[in-house]
Amino acid sequence: MTLERQRGVTAETEGWVGCPMAEASLPELQGDTEALPCPSILELEELLRAGKFSSNHVDEVWPNLYIGDAATANNRFELWKLGITHVLNAAHGGLYCHGSPDFYGSSVSYMGVPAHDLPDFDISAYFSSAADFIHRALSTPGAKVLVHCVVGVSRSATLVLAYLMLRQQLSLRKAVITVREHRWVFPNRGFLHQLCQLDQQLRESPMSPAAQKELGSPSSNAASQAPRPHMVTESWSVRPVMGLCHFATQALVLLVLLEPLAQVDTQKMIRAQFGDHPRACNSIHFLLLPALPLSHCIQFSQKQHQVCRDRRLEVGSTKYRSEKTIAWARYPHRMDSLQKQDLRRPKIHGAVRVPHYQPPTLASLQRLLWVRRAAMLSHINEVWPNLFLGDAYAARDKYKLTQLGITHIVNVAAGKFQVDTGAKFYRGMPVDYYGIEADDNPFFNLSVYFLPVARYIRTALSVPRGRVLVHCAMGVSRSATVVLAFLMICENMTLVEAIQTVQAHRDICPNSGFLQQLQVLDNRLGRETGRL
């Protein structure tokens, strides 16, 4: 939908006409919201939940400023149709985002911010540079800017909100209300905390727009020492190493600088370690960095859930399976060609199984999840014969579900403010629905659903031509956790083997709390089956 300009603050616009949602939001924005105190994290989340729920790949949230996902950013024809002239990639270097100067060519100006969607990641270091990039672009006649990450909900939305605060002089509350009217966004709590800090500092230190240009983080020192993002204007003489995590990139830069002294062939070392196409080490929604105190994170209020009464988890066989146990091959197969007899369980570092199973530590599980194997971004993947893992888009695509022959759906993000489908949404379809109102929160107790969901999936797969879709919002944390629990309970896999099995076909990243709950399950099953 094209949004027409109505009037400007300077050369920029304050509101739009021709869009009912924008017109409805103007009276709310014209109120004296500046007199209100800085909103808390919970207040911001309530504001975000009250906004539009959009399933579009891209939405115009400010005149000529778009927020989108990786599917849009990777579609150059779609960008050409939209008239995009500038791209800000908030997930630069990630597996799913192909953004680079070579990819877009000379017709599109590109800026890459290598941010992770993690509460501990300091995205405020890029507030100022990202706002400057967007401001310069929108000051160019005929320019249109796309800000994107993988899903277009957290990282990209955070940078757009920071731009509206720094360059459009909106309060955080106004910025959230403005964006939510056109797209459903939901930055993680760490990013919301950093936006609150920026909002507080802008309120306490009134500055001119020129002075605010220099303010990009809660601390001016942090802003001056902020890492420089990857920016492209006309030409590049030095290109960053793509697809490596932050620490690996720093190490390789040191190797390049010291190569004349140490006589190290850096290129050979890179190829030896990562092959011709090294892949990213970052994940989508997991604490990769050392855990910081979570005092600034406010826990979601959890509903009282029924505690599972089973004292003992049912396992298909009490005998621990050997290498003959079914598993997936290293490389993904076509969805219509997956057969159990074609699968082999991947080995861990090529080592032979030791007699006594060693339970993995949380750090080792994190490292295992960093290894990316899926080659393409997809809304749905078959991770076990007739068992699919997907996101909210896949759950709402009735045509795709019918095409795949899905007969059972497990929604691990059910609820009014999450993926609110329910049995009524699939009325008229031969689909059985199972909903769980779970939060993607490390403090949420998802383990009470491990056994009942595993039983449900096992029963569904036992039905002739039964096919199960397990999904949440993104298909990487909540839904992945219950799938891993199913493989451990019903297929007698260890936690490491279950992760390797699913990771071979879809990138997953349960949050730290869910991983710890899976560790408890792994230890319990290990004692019952004699592995420990």
Automatic annotation (TrEMBL):
Residues of the Tyrosine-protein phosphatase domain: 56-204, 379-527
Q: Sorted alphabetically, which keywords does the UniProt record give?
A: Cytoplasm, Hydrolase, Protein phosphatase
Going by the record, the broad EC class of this enzyme is hydrolase
What family is this protein classified in? Belongs to the protein-tyrosine phosphatase family. Non-receptor class dual specificity subfamily.
Name the PROSITE patterns for this protein: TYR_PHOSPHATASE_1, TYR_PHOSPHATASE_2, TYR_PHOSPHATASE_DUAL
Q: Which SMART domains match?
A: DSPc, PTPc_motif
Instruction: Tell me what this protein is called.
Output: Dual specificity protein phosphatase 13B
The Enzyme Commission number assigned here is 3.1.3.16, 3.1.3.48
Biological process (GO) annotations? Answer: negative regulation of MAPK cascade
Q: Where is the Tyrosine specific protein phosphatases domain?
A: 125-183, 448-506
Q: Where is this region: Disordered?
A: 207-228
One of the record's GO cellular component terms: cytoplasm
Catalytic reaction annotation:
O-phospho-L-threonyl-[protein] + H2O = L-threonyl-[protein] + phosphate; O-phospho-L-tyrosyl-[protein] + H2O = L-tyrosyl-[protein] + phosphate; O-phospho-L-seryl-[protein] + H2O = L-seryl-[protein] + phosphate
Give the subcellular location: Cytoplasm
Q: Which InterPro entries match?
A: Atypical_DUSP_subfamA, Dual-sp_phosphatase_cat-dom, Prot-tyrosine_phosphatase-like, Tyr_Pase_AS, Tyr_Pase_cat, Tyr_Pase_dom, TYR_PHOSPHATASE_DUAL_dom
- Keyword Cytoplasm assigned: yes
Q: Output one GO MF annotation.
A: protein serine/threonine phosphatase activity
Q: What does this protein do?
A: Dual specificity phosphatase that dephosphorylates MAPK8/JNK and MAPK14/p38, but not MAPK1/ERK2, in vitro. Exhibits intrinsic phosphatase activity towards both phospho-seryl/threonyl and -tyrosyl residues, with similar specific activities in vitro.
Q: Which organism is it from?
A: Camelus dromedarius (Dromedary)
| Active-site residues, record numbering mapped to chain | 472 (phosphocysteine intermediate)
Q: Which residues form a coiled coil?
A: none
Q: Which domain of life is it from?
A: Eukaryota
Specify where it is mainly localized: cytoplasm
